[in-house]
Amino acid sequence: MNVSYQWxxxxxxxxxxxxxxxxxxxxxxxxxxEDVTIPEAGLKKIVVGYAAEVIDHPDSDHxxxxxVDIGEAELSQIVCGAPNIAAGQKIIVALPGSRITGNxxxxxxxMRGQVSNGxxxxxxELGYSExxxxxxxxxGIYVLSENAxxxxxxxxxxxxxxxxxxxxxxxxxxxxxxxxxxxxEVGAIYNQKPMFKGFTLTETTxxxxxxxxxxxxxxxxxxPSYNIRVIKDVKVEESPLWLQTKLMNAGIRPLNNIVDITNxxxxxxxxxxxxxxxxxxxxxxxxxxxxxxxxxxxxxDGKERxxxxxxxxxxxxxxxxxxxxxxxxxxxxIQADTVNVALEAALFEPIxxxxxxxxxxxxxxxxxxxxxxxxHATIITAGDHAAALIAELAGGTVVxxxxxxxxxxxxxxxxxxxxxxxxxxxxxxxTAEEVTAIFDRLGFKSTETNGLFEVAVPPRRWDIAIExxxxxxxxxxxxxxxxxxxxxxxxxxxxxLNDKQRLIRHTRHYLEGAGLSQAISYVLTTPEKxxxxxxxxxxxxxxxxxxxxxxxxxxxxxxxxxxxxxxxNIARKNADVALYEIGHVFYQEDGQLLPLEEDHLSGVLTGxxxxxxxxxxxxxxxFFDIKGILEGLVAxxxxxxxxxxxxxxxxxxxxxxxxxxIYLGEKExxxxxxxxxxxxxxxxxxETYAFELNLQAIADADKHPxxxxxxxxxxxxxxxxxxxxxxxxxxxxxxxxxxxxxxxxLTGVRLFDIYQGSNIEAGKKSLAYTLSYxxxxxxxxxxxxxxAFEKVTTALIETYHVVVR
Length: 805
Hints:
The protein is an alpha+beta fold. The protein is 25% helix and 29% strand.
């Protein structure tokens, strides 16, 4: 909101307070001032002129040669192209050597052979936006009031010597969306009581409002207060200059004296008003109701609106004439020939107004105030003040009484708080007398008994309802700078990671060492992607009001997000992608309000892990690359139960011949494999390998303690063995059997070759292993290793009918 410093001075004594000091003080007490501007800044030598004579330019069809009185002994000739220039006008003149907006310098010159000593200005040339320029002067120069004195500076007449404070109002301080509200705030800061001028409302004695109009409200919750006054025999004309300048400095365009008065009252009280042309209502009845489906209304912007029961409308008993709290209707607007005015002052349900303004994209000064709240105590007063001004400035007569439907009771809100609570919350030692003085400055009546304050908060501060609000008010006026700065007194506890945090950190370090980069995906995705690659059955958790359909559902896997990231990289010519992610997935359990959050680990490989060089082309990643990385990672966890890989031909979205389920003991905790070609195509990827793991299950699983040992003193031995087996026998089965029968000195089994092809019987394969033996307490004897190796060979032959090659 733009606040006029000079307007504030009508209510308070700001003699020794500069606009900059006021802005700084208000910002320190809770209402931020974004900027302080002085409209005349950068302008100079711009004065009032009197157009004594205006004739057409002899060599132009649109220029005029003007003889202008600028307060000097002789008239000054100025050539002007404005279509509305006329003799007898008081105008704005930029003298030679002056500066207008944009730092443009005005010089003497000639226009089509005629001397021009300066420039006759429009408001835009003084820096006013065309949005606030009065309509009748939008295409030409601005005409000043008759009392302007030629030769004097134009800035005081246009209130351009004022300072405009731009307030950044938060929703909880909607009371500051009015000049009176800001005056109360400034008065509290400087310990002054604002003085508001009274007004006199004179009503007719021979006519009553019942003769003109009656009001009915269909739902008092939608419209708790609705009041209409009638002012007859008005004359619609241009507003006086003081009213126009107040509106323009506040960012509102002057239209005519009737509409300008309603906007003036809106700025002063924060109470939106609406003026109807009484005769164009074509009815003596006003009914406020919800709109009907398909009902149409042409608003003041000339657009036809299709209404619904979500919208509150003002009707003449039959058809809609205004969109309540948002915008009036074109059929009943104030026009130049308006004689009788019906003036509305009302209170509407905030949520309905906000929804209507959003639906039709009709955010207005009125709707923004109805949305945030208005002062219930001044609804009637604001309407009466506006009626008195219309009678004064438009020559009208106010009909006795008002048509009203009112269920609003404006009363003080009583809030209790103790002195101990205040001091404990603020860390201060404020006395009861100081607190009472602060409440007095705020205009809150208070009584104190043994440290307990009973505070009566007036209706103009509807944001205060609980003791925390009073704590904030005391802190603001006492001064945030005066609050003591103290460090919290808490027991110092050495920080450390818990087991799960250590596991996650170790996982990140390992995978990054293996060449993968961490990715972080959105937890919100589409319903289709949320339900892909799931490790357990679950219902989806959907957002009630999502920002978009692509971000509507909480994910139940990490892999779909990684695949999106992979696609993003591939689309930007990064063909080699190795990513992993650690994060939450969300499962919905029966009977639970909130979803279950579970930590998962997922990874994706595509392209190559190495770069091509002079030794050869980089190999493409395959199943065994990603399986090797995952096996190495799992081995570092030290799990007491074995992690095994079992072929899985039925996992949705994965290749049926190159996918394995991952088990921890007897429990399935994840999967690994190649994306199904159709899935890869859907993500626009080539051959891609991925895994997803329930990291929470690994974090909860039992683990061997970490035991540190020295480097062995004694040498170990190795034995190689090549086995011809049925192709249905897996490496996992053979490895498990070798480890079982290998004896106490067998420390490792490594597959180093696999072969199928020529010289191998169909349906069989050759697997070659290296067995490592070590006795940490003594030197191994050849006979011990040979004996243990023979046991392994015998077990393999008996169990899987292998042929040792």
